[in-house]
Write a structure and sequence with these properties.
Blueprint: E1 5-6, H1 18-21, E2 35-43, H2 47-59, E3 65-68, E4 84-85, H3 101-125, E5 136-140, H4 143-158, E6 164-167, H5 168-175, E7 182-186, E8 190-191, H6 194-203, E9 209-212, E10 219-223, E11 226-230, E12 235-243, E13 260-269, H7 274-280, E14 286-290, E15 297-300, E16 306-314, H8 322-339, E17 348-358, E18 365-370, E19 373-377, H9 383-398, H10 404-411, H11 423-439
The chain binds flavin-adenine dinucleotide.
Domain FAD dependent oxidoreductase: 39-396
Keywords: Oxidoreductase
Organism: Trinickia violacea
């Protein structure tokens, strides 16, 4: 007999998502309010759930599929990130993103699989989400950062991946700021307006997928061949369930300590006016990652806004406070002022946070959790490309397919458990603090 599941944490207000706010008004919402039957239910309308539902529908066009999302699709983490579809190694717990040759090659294979899948959907349906295959810059601000980039470049050479060095003047020509001492350009990264992408993916799902938003699953009861999903009002009786709830999975049984809900935060400026754009200089759109994974990610957007992301906070209860957001905004302001002294009058208009789902050993959950219940959970900070891949592949696996990438995901380590709380809380928060302190100049 499979076990029942109870969901105890749900998306809570965590700032104002600039990506969502700068889009046209959202489409009308359908919530679940009666008792319905489906062959499949995908829980979670982030990138993982959207790819899982799409792939299920493609492979099983006669199946009935429900995609249920606690909030609005595009307003939660998958629509709140910095929009980098990273193809290369990107271990944010390491000093320079790289791991071993074998692990790096496996990561690249998987991530490109995910990116290709989403890119194909964007192209096929003309999804308006500013999808760009323009690559990314890893920029350093001092010798320590340069050494980390050199280490990263060596790792890329070992796996035969191209990169190109830019000196101080060359990166200033791109960004308009003389803040960076140099950069490494890697061509394979794609970038998007993440909220627009999530909305677009939802709007173009095959017809056998029905979406319910503002519909949080409260629990799943195992009734032999059926699973009964309960909501605030209404139920779904389903034959099979796919859990794609990322950090929110950290709070139900089985793996209580291995999945770590760690928030990161971003701010977006108002749109610059033509005179400010000219003062800044540089190119109209670029995407930059810090040499130290704990530093600041910065993007200049096609709509003349700038988006800054930094700061991490372990929040096991999946809630951030007003003080968390105020602290994040002041760190973003500082980072913005250091980089763009010529834009003193350009305010940060929106600030928000969102939970990543990390684990100390880069482990994630993929596969069959229970009879009729599958899971693809644990983005380790790279949900756009990894989530796309694991969402697509969990659907294939659940339908009985087998391939090398499915095996790769099945064989990845499970998130390693930590000591019980509150010891784990103190240990994780202290580790984040030390890493952020060490990133210093890159913030
Ligand atoms: C500021 C910021 C910047 C980031 N930058 C990047 C980046 O540039 N590139 C990158 O790859 N990653 C980035 N990330 C991480 C990325 O956003 C995540 O890895 C990604 O969203 C994971 O996708 P997911 O679909 O697995 O999970 P989520 O996006 O978290 O989606 C899970 C969904 O499940 C829903 N849900 C939870 N519980 C329930 C329930 N009981 N019932 C129904 N629905 C439920 C949630 O509302 C949520 O929509 C960033 C994150 C943040 C916060």
């Amino acid at each position: 007999m499979a076990s029942n599941l109870e969901f105890v944490r749900f998306p809570a207000p965590d700032g104002v998502n600039g990506w969502w706010e700068t889009l046209p008004p959202p489409p009308a919402v359908t919530t679940l309010s009666s008792e319905l039957r489906y062959d499949w239910v995908v829980v979670g309308g982030g990138i993982t759930g959207l790819c899982a539902a799409r792939r299920l529908a493609e492979l099983a066009p006669d199946a009935t599929i429900a995609l249920v999302e606690a909030d609005r699709i595009g307003r939660t983490t998958a629509g709140r990130n910095s929009g980098f579809f990273v193809d290369l190694p990107h271990d944010i717990s390491s000093e320079s993103y790289s791991r071993s040759v074998e692990a790096d090659k496996a990561d690249v294979r998987l991530q490109r699989h995910g990116i290709d899948y989403v890119r194909a959907a964007v192209k096929q349906h003309n999804i308006d989400c500013d999808w760009r295959d323009d690559g990314k810059f890893h920029a350093s601000v001092n010798k320590k950062g340069h050494a980390a980039l050199a280490h990263f470049a060596e790792g890329l050479a070992r796996i035969d991946e191209a990169c190109e060095w830019l000196d101080e003047a060359a990166i200033a020509k791109v960004t308009g700021t003389s803040f960076y001492q140099g950069a490494l350009f890697t061509p394979g990264c794609s970038t998007v307006q993440p909220a627009a992408l999530m909305r677009g993916l939802a709007a173009t799902l095959p017809e056998n997928v029905k979406i319910f938003e503002l519909s949080a699953v409260k629990g799943i009861e195992d009734q032999g061949p059926n699973k009964v999903l309960s909501f605030a009002s209404g139920k779904i009786v389903a034959k099979r369930v796919m859990l794609c709830t990322n950090a929110y999975a950290a709070t139900f049984g089985g793996h209580p300590n291995g999945l770590l809900p760690v928030y990161t935060f971003a701010s977006m400026t108002r749109a610059m006016n033509p005179e400010e754009v000219q003062r800044l200089g540089g190119t109209q759109s670029w995407a930059l990652i810090p040499a130290d994974p704990m530093g600041s990610t910065v993007r200049r957007l096609i709509n003349d806004r700038i988006c800054v992301r930094n700061h991490f906070a372990f929040r096991p209860n999946l809630e951030v406070s007003a003080a968390d957001l105020a602290k994040a905004k002041s760190l973003h302001q500082r980072s913005f002022d250091r980089r763009f002294p010529m834009l003193k009058d350009v305010e940060l208009e929106y600030t928000w946070g969102g939970p990543l789902c990390l684990s100390v050993n880069n482990g994630a959950l993929f596969g069959r959790r229970d009879d009729g219940v599958f899971e693809a959970v644990g983005c380790n900070g790279l949900g756009l490309s990894r989530g796309s891949a694991s969402g697509k592949l969990i659907a294939e696996y659940a339908l009985g397919q087998d391939n090398e990438l499915i095996r790769q995901l099945l064989n990845q380590p499970h998130p390693r458990s930590l000591p019980v709380r509150p010891i784990a809380d103190v240990a994780v928060s202290a580790a984040i603090w030390v890493k952020e302190f060490s990133a210093g100049a890159e913030l």
